[in-house]
């Protein structure tokens, strides 16, 4: 039987702290653009969805040497994440180390990926980060090319 985790005051405080740190980092990077020596160590996948039903976050970030000032969008879920911040926390340092700036957590929800039925359902919300734009998440998943042949849907219903 899987253990359910309910968002509590501590998790809300940790999510707010993470958001505040990203905001502070964003202001610092606006004043000090990254040097051209920032190493893009490897391609960070825009989509990472574990098989099953798990929490996900929608994150935007400006890629290194981005002359168009257009952010990339990331949709990541993580098996075993107790809270939405547990999905975001490992991704943020990877983005920073790869030279991404203006990293923003744009909300969260849940993603159900069922490989047997070739479906992905995006739904729900995050108490800590708010509801993600599920239509945008669906678009990112479909454009990633990782789930060709899957039916991807979204809804603002459920948790």
Total beta-strand segments: 6
Strand order of the largest sheet: 1-3-2-4-5-6
Biggest beta-sheet profile: 6 strands, mixed
Low-pLDDT stretches: 34-41
Overall geometry comes to globular
Q: What is the CATH C level class, in words?
A: Alpha Beta
Brief descriptors of the model:
159 residues, alpha/beta, 6-stranded mixed β-sheet, 3 helices, 30% helix
Description of the molecule:
With 159 residues, the protein is of the alpha/beta class. The protein has a single domain (9-31, 43-154), classed as Pyruvoyl-Dependent Histidine Decarboxylase, Chain B, CATH 3.50.20. It contains three helices and six strands, in the order αβββαββαβ. The protein has helices at 9-31, 84-97, 134-144; strands at 47-48, 52-62, 72-77, 101-114, 119-123, 151-154. The protein has a six-stranded mixed sheet, with helices on both faces. A hairpin with a 4-residue loop joins strand 4 (101-114) and strand 5 (119-123). The longest helix is centred in the first third of the chain and has 23 residues, at 9-31. Keywords: Differentiation, Sexual differentiation.
């Amino acid at each position: 039987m899987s253990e359910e985790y309910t968002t509590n005051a501590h998790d809300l405080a940790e999510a707010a702290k993470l958001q505040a740190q990203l905001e502070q980092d964003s202001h610092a990077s606006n004043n000090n653009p990254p040097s051209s020596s920032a190493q893009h160590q490897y391609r960070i996948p825009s989509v990472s969805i574990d098989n099953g039903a798990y929490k996900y976050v929608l994150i935007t970030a400006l890629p290194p040497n981005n002359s168009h000032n257009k952010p990339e969008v990331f949709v990541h879920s993580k098996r075993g994440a107790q809270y939405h911040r547990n999905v975001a926390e490992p991704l943020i340092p990877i983005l920073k180390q790869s030279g991404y700036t203006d990293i923003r957590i744009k909300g969260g929800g849940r993603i159900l990926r069922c490989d047997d039925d070739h479906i992905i359902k995006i739904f729900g919300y995050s108490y800590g980060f708010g509801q993600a734009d599920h239509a945008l998440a669906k678009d990112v998943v479909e454009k990633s090319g990782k789930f060709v042949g899957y039916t991807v849907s979204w809804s603002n219903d459920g948790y």
